[in-house]
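Reader question, answered in our methods column.
A reader sent in the components of a multi-part assembly and asked whether the whole thing could be modeled at once rather than chain by chain. We filled in our standard form and ran it. Here is what they sent:
COMPLEX SIZE: three components
ENTRIES:
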Amino acid sequence: MTFTIYELAAMQPALLVMIAGLLAVGLDTFVPSKTRIAHAMLCGGGVIAAMAALGSQLYYQRTAIHAFGNMLVLDDMACFLSLAILAATGLVLISSDADTTRRNIGFGEYYGLIMIAASAMMMLVASNDFMTIFVNLEVLSLALYVLTGITRKNPRSNEASVKYLVSGAFATCFFLMGVAFLYGATGTFALSGIREALALGLDSSMARVGLGMVMVGFAFKIGAVPFHMWVPDVYEGAPTSTTAFMSVTVKAAGVGALIRVLLIAAPMRSDLWADLLWWMAVATMVVGNLMALQQTSVKRMLAFSSVAHTGYALVALATMRSTDETFVPEAAASALFYLLTYTFMTLGAFSFLIYMGHELPGKDGTSEWQDAETLSDLAGMADRRPWAAAMMGLFLLSLGGIPPTAGFLGKFYLFAGAIERGHVTIAVIGVMASLVSLYYYLRVIVWMYMKEPMIADEKPHPSVAVVIALAGLATLLIGVMPGAFIAAAEHSIAVLR
Amino acid sequence: MDPIFLIASAVALASAVNMVTQRNPVYSAVFLLVGFLAVAVTFLSLSAPFLAAIHVVVYTGAIMVLFLFVIMLLNLKPEELGAEYPIETRAPIAVLCAAMFGMMSWAILSDPSLAIPAKAPNATWGSVEEVGLLLFNVYALPFELISLLIIVAMFGALVLAKKRLSNVEATS
Amino acid sequence: MTWLWFFAKIGVALGIIFSLGPVCIMGDRKISAWIQGRVGPNRVGPWGTFQPIADILKLMMKEVIVPDGVDKVLFLGGPLIVFIAPVFGYCVIPFGNQIGEEKLQVVNLDIGLLFIMSVLSVGVYGITLGGWASNNKFSLMGSLRASAQLISYELTFGLTMLLVVMMSASADPLKSASVDLSKIVLHQAEYGWNIFGGATWWGLPSGLIGFVLLFTCAMAENNRLPFDMAECEAELVGGYHTEYSGMGFAMYMFSEYCSMILSASLIVTLFLGGWSFPYLTDPADHSFLAGVISIGVFFTKICIILFLYIQLRWTLPRFRYDQVMSLGWKTFLPLALVNIGYMAVIGVFLEKP
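And here is the structure of the entire assembly that came back:
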């Protein structure tokens, strides 16, 4: 087997991001430690170049590129999710300007790790082989462990990093064991090879257990119940821009890879995984929302709400097998679309918390930055920061699923599809769960608009305002004219088969 | 079955159990070491000599040395190790682990595909040459991506562990 | 007949280690005396030649003291582990050419080089565990230093071994790069020693640097002066063997010489053509006489390397600990990498299409 240089085209967008990240690390040697313009231009350039590469792939090349013995395939789904990941990465790069300058985090290491994680995610959604899936999953996890603990003086951040590392290593064990079982049953790591082997009609108990363990591994990474325990602690402890980054991109990448595994490796064995996913989706929606109800910290509440939103996305996968036993892979399109909407609204909400950061007097005369976290931090902000508060209100309503926002359309598309395929129960549970979620989203809005301010020294960071505006624009845009996005999502799944 | 395989796997299992049950961390590390060596021997008996050698070089030669290094550097006294978890905590975990183990053994033992004999390995199967050819041909992409993984790991360790110079020190 | 050959070969291999061991100890003392202008041991036997035997007898008679508070199992097990490792490693060293159908090598493993690496890496546990089990701060420091030093130098060690594998592939028409030690030696007998660049003069700088790197790393891994960080008397009393007496100490000391001999054999095998010597040996000659001559050549080469070892011990000043570390990580590792890169380029350019 020989490879040609042209096969690099399949990983070109990811490669651009990766190279920009690695150069950003090296840049620390050459530029003064307080200068960040070089890093920003390099990483921003990498993101834009990768987006351009993906765009040309989508509009000029059009056919999927299968590279390296079909280990990596740049098809429309990979492009769709890569674009979502890149959009999130670009926004996080802008908003992390606040975190890096306020907390004195090195620009090179921070931007470098984010870019490397993003490139691993882009390769993950394009991976067509368990070998590449596993390696990319590990690269992105490692980068995120470090990003979580990057504020080394902060004990909460350290604790979060260690928790993430330990639970992530645990998840990796499950995933790897599952891959080993699948290999034992089928003799190959390639997703299409596994499908062929399973199609031979072997009722393999090893493949069954292997698939289950692989799904457990994925559930850990995307934070689905009952493997969600690490989510609130890690999201709360990590610097908020890291939280924003990982809450949206890891879910997009993880769910994307899961969709590819399910649709390419085991489509005809949906009897094996549909029930498992059904229970997982229901548990995730219910537990995520119920736990979010009890939180007083907005950051922690958003963490639990992201667990709940994983559940919504899983609904689409769980109902791919309709009640009359036909398999409807197109259902996965609603998960992709939901992930897209989720990306912008969650990113916006977390960015608002960064935007409202204030200085806390620390020990020995220094001051420490504190992002807005509790409800009282946000009290009365509608008077003081009307535009930002309005945007936050928009994100929260979108998360709760109120029209005309993106979140509403995502949920509508999702649950309508589920009902269409006969899964009324899970749709009803989902709608009930999002009704419950409205309570805690609206509570934040009530505090912002109807309480007296308790903090008067918040120092908004201008670059974060840009992120909030862009995310709000995207949330509204997708909400008002979703046609193109839904069509793109449906097309991505259609070519996957 | 091959008696060497049976003996080596028995040793591996026994040392694994011992590793978990020992109170003294150094003893745990030593039993893990013995377990690694025994696993290497099982690899040898399964005609995977390259894997066996690499297993010993990487795990016992590098990773376990670092483990022992850290354990000895901390040099915890038995009284500093902290109380054991109460039986109420340990029992459910034990049951879960046993269930996990049971499920995996059931999956392997009841699998009909294992009744089909595996592809007969030729003489050079599992040799250094064969593994090398696979790594640099079929699995070239994951192999190269591993280097990215290692860069991130190394870089992350540096970021988390290095002494950060304050700006005053950096400029002077 | 095969069994007889097997035992005979084990006998020769063990003979090389166990006869050279005491000779080494004796040589160490005599040469140090010679370098320092002293007389050295001269009481037992003619010119003091029976001194090592007397030493061993003395150490065997002494009481094995197990101090209070030590971890008994590991305290007694440590010397054993450290002693077994070099003996195991000798299994795969080809100490001579073929006699008839029998290769003069105890076991002919495909993974010979990797086997040696794994055995050497296990050896350090004897030092580490023994030092920890002694329940003594100095011992612990010594064993920690030993493990740190081993990890640091093992990288360069491994990379230099890789260089040898690449050299045996560079101009080989059969393209049979191998980690099988007997093949590596045969390749050198055919095309030229690896220290001179193997089959091509372009490899000369690579070979010379590789030899120096391997030699130094072997010295560092054996904790020999000037790398005796693990047991330096001036700082750590005796390092990891502070608490040992009698046979425990004897085994530590003897195993140090054994691993010296193993390293010397490895250096000879990898870089100095093993049992081959121009005009003296002929790889195609499988007679008994030629086999004995090849063993003799191998033995002589080991002795020369061992002499270098001992002479360097008394010639060079000791390193400081941080110097040892920075030498390993900042000088040797990059040098070994560059070396390998150079050899890879050479190999690609010399490749016949």
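What stands out: Chain A touches chain B through 48 residues (CB under 8 Å). Chain A has a mean pLDDT of 87.
Send us your own complexes using the same form.
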